[in-house]
């Protein structure tokens, strides 16, 4: 349509473009040239089969552990709070209803500066959190996901948790098993 009516391209609310595809031996080019020249942040790579194309079950997504995130429902528990009246930041996953998953790590300073004064507006919202194994609890706030009506399904969370503890050799082993099944 836009080729036939280029005057309409100006008023479109978004742009659709093609992503350049590279073969696996072009990974160095992707990492050193393509990703640094992107106009947006790159949070991972997607590997597809040359013959199967881009379809469910036929792709391998890779993200660095600090970019693997999950969407969970946030709720505050004031029954157990610290000396600053900072509540527990409870996270809930989706299992046909929201069920408790874990807590979110928030420092006392973050509670005082960001959360405390308007915490009621954050109750029940979906938050995107990332995993940080050096803290307890290991989940850190990344952003609000008001575009999501509910938390990630528990099966999605389980897959992401597995990827956080897997290593590159395990990914290679899984990929080889998939190829052998063809």
Largest sheet strand order = 3-4-5-7-6
Number of helices: 5
Mind telling me the C-alpha Rg? 21 Å
Summed over residues and divided by their number, the pLDDT gives a mean of 84
pLDDT < 50 stretches? none
Silhouette:
globular
Structural class: alpha+beta
What is the terminal-to-terminal distance? 39 Å
Number of DSSP strands? 7
Order of helices and strands, N to C? HEEEEEHHEEHH
Portion of residues within helices: 10-25%
Taken as a percent bin, the fraction of beta residues is: 15-25%
Major sheet: size, sense and barrel closure? 5 strands, mixed, barrel
Enzyme class: transferase
Main location: nucleus
Subcellular location: Nucleus
InterPro entries: mRNA_cap_enzyme_adenylation, mRNA_cap_enzyme_C, mRNA_Capping_Enz/RNA_Phosphat, NA-bd_OB-fold
Give structural notes.
This protein has 182 residues and is an alpha+beta fold. Helices cover 25% and strands 24% of the residues. The chain has helices at 27-34, 108-115, 119-122, 154-165, 168-180, and strands at residues 45-48, 59-62, 69-77, 88-94, 98-105, 126-131, 139-144. The strands form two sheets. A five-stranded mixed beta barrel has the order 3-4-5-7-6. The radius of gyration is 21 Å and the shape is globular. The two termini are 39 Å apart. Its main location: nucleus. It is an enzyme of class 2 (transferase). It catalyses: a 5'-end diphospho-ribonucleoside in mRNA + GTP + H(+) = a 5'-end (5'-triphosphoguanosine)-ribonucleoside in mRNA + diphosphate. It holds the Pfam family mRNA_cap_enzyme.
């Amino acid at each position: 349509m836009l080729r036939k009516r280029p005057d309409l391209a100006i008023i479109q609310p978004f742009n659709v473009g093609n992503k350049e595809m590279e073969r696996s031996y072009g990974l160095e080019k992707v990492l050193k040239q393509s990703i640094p020249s992107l106009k947006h942040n790159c949070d991972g790579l997607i590997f597809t089969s040359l013959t199967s194309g881009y379809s469910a079950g036929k792709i391998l997504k890779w993200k660095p552990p600090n970019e693997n995130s999950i969407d969970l429902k946030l709720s505050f528990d004031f029954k157990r709070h610290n000396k600053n009246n900072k509540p527990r930041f409870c996270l809930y996953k989706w299992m046909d209803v929201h069920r408790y998953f874990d807590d979110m790590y928030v420092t006392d300073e973050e509670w005082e500066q960001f959360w405390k004064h308007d915490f009621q507006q954050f109750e029940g919202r979906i938050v995107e959190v990332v995993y940080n194994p050096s803290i307890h609890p290991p989940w850190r706030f990344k952003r609000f996901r008001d575009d999501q009506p509910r938390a990630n399904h528990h099966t999605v969370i389980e897959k992401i948790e597995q990827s956080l503890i897997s290593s590159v050799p395990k990914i290679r082993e899984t990929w080889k098993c998939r190829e052998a099944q063809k």
